[in-house]
């Protein structure tokens, strides 16, 4: 099989759309469609079902997917070996992370790594969503749960906590709640429940089963900004909230405890750039571990 055709097949399989694969590969839509058709003809099988919503793998396509991913891993390993350990590190590494960790912690620190390796391109995607490493949506993902499925390498970075916070201005105007039951008389800031991407992020009930937020924001930094503005009382990341003098911790409940994990696909293991970025993130967290205490 022609590797270029297999590479295009993988892109279509992962994106679920010929147009999406074409954009990712930087190719013309018609070229991608033609190459997929040529691969199907050479194998004498249908690899995709063409749907109005995109392209779905057939059983033959599912079977080829496993073989194609092994070919991809071999190509990645071969390129890593040929690159040589003494060469300047280059290429692109995309990091997907929750916005609290991505913007609140990682973004101010990645510049040091970029300066160290001038030909290394770093992409940080700090949004409140999950990333598929098998579909190559990111090379490295920061998650709040250890993955249990897939050929993934995972390492725990650090534990962190969340707690109740309000602004001094809000407390001056509305008074401070003395008990959890008092929260029912206050405006609450929370997350958008149906946009939560992981059960570990659906934590409000750990503070109060009847938590009802009147102002919902689908990002950790957005919730912090809302609470800082005096919009209400919210559950914030401690390592972010403690940076703002106008925020007051309300010790009405035990802290919520979570952890950040660094994860990448096993096929990325041979890549020096992925290993270097992973090591940098781990060292940055270790250096500033006190922030998360």
Structure write-up:
The protein is of the alpha/beta class. The protein has two domains: 3-83, Winged helix-like DNA-binding domain superfamily/Winged helix DNA-binding domain (Arc Repressor Mutant, subunit A, Orthogonal Bundle); 91-293, D-Maltodextrin-Binding Protein, domain 2, CATH 3.40.190. 41% of the residues lie in helices and 22% in strands. It is built from ten helices and eleven strands. Helix 1 (3-15) packs across helix 3 (29-43), helix 1 (3-15) packs across helix 4 and helix 5 (99-116) packs across helix 10 (272-287).
Would you spell out the secondary-structure blueprint of this structure?
Elements lengths: L2 H13 L2 H8 L3 H15 L4 E4 L2 E4 L1 H25 L7 E7 L1 H18 L3 E7 L13 E4 L8 E16 H7 L13 E3 L13 H4 L7 E2 L3 H9 L4 E5 H4 L5 E3 L6 E10 L6 H16 L6
Parallel strand pairs: 3-4, 3-5, 7-8, 7-9
Antiparallel strand pairs: 1-2, 5-11, 6-9, 6-10, 6-11
Helix pairs in contact: 1-2, 1-3, 1-4, 2-3, 5-10
Please give the share of residues in helix: 40-55%
Q: CATH class of the largest domain, please?
A: Alpha Beta
Molecular shape: elongated
- Low-confidence spans: none
Number of continuous helical runs: 10
| The number of domains | 2
The CATH architecture classification of the largest domain is: 3-Layer(aba) Sandwich
The beta-strand count equals 11
Q: Tell me the CATH topology of the largest domain.
A: D-Maltodextrin-Binding Protein, domain 2
Radius of gyration: 23 Å
Write down the overall mean pLDDT: 88
Sheet/helix structural class: alpha/beta
Percentage of β-strand residues = 15-25%
Instruction: Give me the strand/helix succession.
Output: HHHEEHEHEEEHEHEHEHEEH
């Amino acid at each position: 099989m022609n590797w270029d055709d297999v590479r295009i097949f993988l892109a279509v399989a992962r994106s679920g759309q010929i147009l999406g694969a074409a954009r990712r590969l930087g190719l013309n839509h018609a070229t991608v469609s033609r190459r997929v058709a040529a691969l199907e003809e050479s194998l004498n099988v249908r690899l995709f079902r063409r749907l109005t919503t995109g392209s779905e793998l057939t059983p033959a396509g599912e079977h080829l997917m496993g073989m194609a991913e092994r070919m991809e891993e071999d190509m990645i390993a071969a390129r890593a070996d040929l690159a040589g350990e003494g060469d300047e590190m280059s290429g692109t590494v995309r990091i997907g992370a929750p916005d609290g960790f991505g913007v609140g912690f990682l973004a101010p620190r990645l510049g040091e790594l970029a300066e160290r390796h001038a030909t290394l391109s770093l992409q940080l995607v700090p949004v409140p969503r999950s990333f598929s490493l098998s579909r190559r949506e990111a090379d490295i993902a920061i998650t709040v749960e250890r993955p249990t499925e897939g050929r993934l390498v995972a390492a725990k970075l650090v534990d962190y906590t969340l707690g109740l916070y309000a602004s001094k201005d809000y407390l001056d105007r509305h008074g401070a709640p003395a008990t959890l039951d008092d929260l029912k008389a206050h405006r609450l800031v929370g997350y958008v429940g149906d946009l939560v991407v992981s059960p570990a992020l659906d934590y409000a009930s750990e503070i109060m089963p009847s938590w009802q937020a009147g102002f919902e924001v689908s990002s950790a930094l957005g919730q912090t900004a809302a609470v800082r503005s005096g919009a209400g009382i919210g559950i914030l990341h401690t390592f972010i909230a403690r940076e703002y003098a106008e925020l007051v911790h309300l010790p009405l409940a035990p802290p919520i405890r979570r952890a950040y994990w660094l994860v990448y696909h096993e096929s990325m293991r041979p890549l020096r750039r992925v290993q270097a970025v992973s090591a940098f993130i781990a060292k940055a967290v270790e250096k500033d571990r006190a922030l998360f205490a």
